[in-house]
Amino acid sequence: MQLFRIRGGVHPDDRKDLTAGRAIESLPMPRLLHIPLQQHIGAIANPLVQRRQQVAKGERIAHGQGAVSAPIHAPTSGRIAGLGLYPANHPSGLSVRTITLQPDGEDRWHESIAGVPDPFALAPAEVAQRVADAGVVGMGGATFPAAVKLSLAKRYRLTTLVINGSECEPYLTCDDQLMREEADAILDGMRIMAHALGVTRVIIGIEGNKPEAIAAMRQAIARLDQARFDGIEPEQPKPDQHGSGRTGSDWAEPNPKVAGRASLMQLEVATLPMRYPMGSEKHLVQTLTGRETPARGLTADIGVVVHNPGTAFAVHEALRFGRPLVSRVVTVTGGAVRSPRNLRVPIGTKVEDLVEYCGRFREEPQRLVAGGPMMGQPLQELRVPVMKGTNGILALTAAEVGSQTPAACIRCGSCVDACPCGLVPLTMAAQVRVGNLDAAASAGLMDCIGCGSCAYVCPAHLPLVQFFAHAKGELAARGRAKQKQSATKRLAEQRSARLEAQKRAKREAMARRKREAAAKQRAEEQAASQAEPARAAPVAEVD
Questions:
Q1: Neighbouring C-alpha atoms within 13 Å toward the C-beta of 13
Q2: Which phi and psi angles does 522 have, rounded to 5°?
Q3: What is the number of domains present in the chain?
Q4: Residue 97: HSE in the Cβ half-sphere, 13 Å Cα cutoff
Q5: How many CB atoms lie within 10 A of CB 514?
Q6: Per the domain annotation, does 225 fall within a domain?
Q7: Model-level pTM?
Q8: Is residue 514 part of a domain?
């Protein structure tokens, strides 16, 4: 298919060779799981369990609240050891509300776990509801509740589903390996999502440095096409003990059933240029379709919805087997890690347990990062838990970090050339440094995706990403303060209006009572005046 060129971007050393091709291993169940209630964009989940309560794997232990939220499920069977505060997987290192689960070693699924024989027979709304009930969120790191995206057809005219398999961040290979090992399951999840969205075109975009993943996805499509040609719909593979489907020759014999509307879907794999940040959904969509997403708009505005391969796999698990999102694949890598690996990890596992399984460190890391090195977040300690959006744990050496002292901006324009959004980072940074945040916002600050391309090429080594993150946070805080002030003013006005209404009601009630009393008095006086002549009249004499 034709690809379209986008502006900007950089070519960092991908360092994927440390874990590329390493089969996904299942991490042994840790002694304790610390499961945060905030693992997604939106409202925090509310706990449904109590201390010492026994739970089964997949049982809901916290429910989402509001339109943008997601429930939380037990990653294994065991006993609730506590509900309280625990350090978050966040740069602040602050503690957040967390459920601590003590596994019992049985890994026993809850009795209510059951899949759907034919997800394509379900109404789109029911598919989205089942995905919501399974707690599926964006697995690429954004953690936006997947069901919300699957419901966009109600408000937008959608034409295409794009699967973002670019995985452009250096070091990370979890999506690459998942596509190699679970191509058929991912393809099935993609088709289910396309059915929910009402689209018939699905594009899987994969960067050219992942030839094995490209081949695996194309082979999965070829198997499906052959099944379509034969007029049948393949029976889905049975899950193994870890909840993963089998692929390739492990598939069961086809179930002789005429393929339905899902057979009309157009499926294609696009080999993307190796250019960071190709994984940015707006730039990915522009590369694949040639259409640009409006500023601060959604790709749905141009008829496209983007999901991650891990999300597609989770949807497959949720619909085919009824299994909620309780584990994910994490890449543990970096020059300081003794044995880098791709691991399937229960949600809530401490990062320390992953590092321990990988042989700990060959040398003391200069920096710990959750996610990729370009857009990941620094880790303050190793005892923080893995969450639904944790796709990588990096332990980087001093040589890999390459920290240098920032110098003065020489206005070379390298950051302008590298910016994929067409912004002028040096101007925005100058405004941020003098505290003129409104001017920075006028220069396009809120359109910055925080990819770090500008900082990567900056010869002065200015912390541009940190400047912009600080400015966005400060503007957001000002916005919240302004909103709070407006809300306070509105409440004060409502209170004043309410008190005035009460006073007015009292005055009207008092006036009404006075009128009623006056009317009553007049009536009494009138009755008395009518009775007076009757009493005063002389009695007639009788002869």
A1: 6
A2: -65, -40
A3: 3
A4: 9
A5: 10
A6: yes
A7: 0.85
A8: no
